[in-house]
Amino acid sequence: MIKSHHNVGGLPKGLKFKLVEPLRELFKDEVRILAREIGVDKDFVDQHPFPGPGLAVRIVGEVDRERLDIVREADEILLSEVRRAGVYKKVWQAFAVLLPVRSVGVMGDRRTYQRVVVLRLVQSTDGMTANWYPIPHELLARISTRIVNEVRGVNRVVYDVTTKPPGTIEWE
Length: 172
What we know:
Elements: H1 28-37, H2 42-45, H3 65-84, E1 93-107, E2 110-123, E3 131-132, H4 137-150, E4 154-159
Parallel strand pairs: 2-4
Antiparallel strand pairs: 1-2, 2-3
């Protein structure tokens, strides 16, 4: 029943053709096996899942351009460092989440009251269960430092160590 809520709706009623979806009951791992069998490019097949609703599910609370820019920039830093470290193919998914809270910090000689970004890296086979990835501390430190130094409005980065279940992979 968990999968039944995914990828439904969006098509207009009264289509003038019959919709045939021979792969709709397959899970991501099964689709990947089939794609490899028929020769689809390996980099394309192995890319991390991206949420259907887009980046909005990675922003807890109100979604606006400023928050989208923050999560997009943090996510780009995370993924570039994960790729550079050779970790990308070891995890099912890696992404940043923006929380609807602010945190006190110190940047330069000034106190700041800015946003919090959560990093989430998980290992899974089919997306139905997942374990958080034990990211090397040096990599986590590099990602965190880059995000607080390069993403305007962020002064704190935290790491999500929740399994699925009880949590989900995405936050919203």
